[in-house]
């Protein structure tokens, strides 16, 4: 039986350095969003020059995409370690994610700005967001189908439509929340979830 070797030497250090840069970038974007953040500040936090930072990420755009990918990974991890118990529906997963995101307004700003710009097919983030929505729709649809099968989710409604509506509600509320932080995104998604419950 073969065993997988852990990276060693310069390669391992490169992976660790890249992770360190991503953590710093996440902090900066969480605090300030895309427009208020600079490569210089991120480089300063990890003790690098801008050329040194770009050795690990070829461009600011590549770093932004890596930040969004890292954010998604951390959100997935958070859902299993947030201490609130087992997730019982797709809608509940979205509510927990929203609550987590409300503590990171800068990352919400980054997501909203990039996702809107990425609707252009030649945008550097287009493929990332197209794949992200495809995966989220499939996962959320499966959750809706499961709920319909066990009697907790309204039947007679296309589960893919329910999935897309849930994602649309979530993303649309992010824009409203950035305009008006008094908007309770989590409570509104919970209202939508109740509308999806079986009668």
TrEMBL record:
In which organism is this protein found? Nonomuraea angiospora
Residue ranges of the DNA-binding region? 38-57
Q: What is this protein called?
A: AcrR family transcriptional regulator
Annotated ranges, domain HTH tetR-type: 15-75
Q: Does the keyword Repressor apply?
A: yes
Is this entry keyworded Membrane? Answer: no
Q: Which PANTHER family match?
A: HTH-TYPE TRANSCRIPTIONAL REPRESSOR NEMR, TRANSCRIPTIONAL REGULATORY PROTEIN
Sorted keywords for this record are: DNA-binding, Repressor, Transcription, Transcription regulation
Q: Which SUPFAM superfamilies match?
A: Homeodomain-like, Tetracyclin repressor-like, C-terminal domain
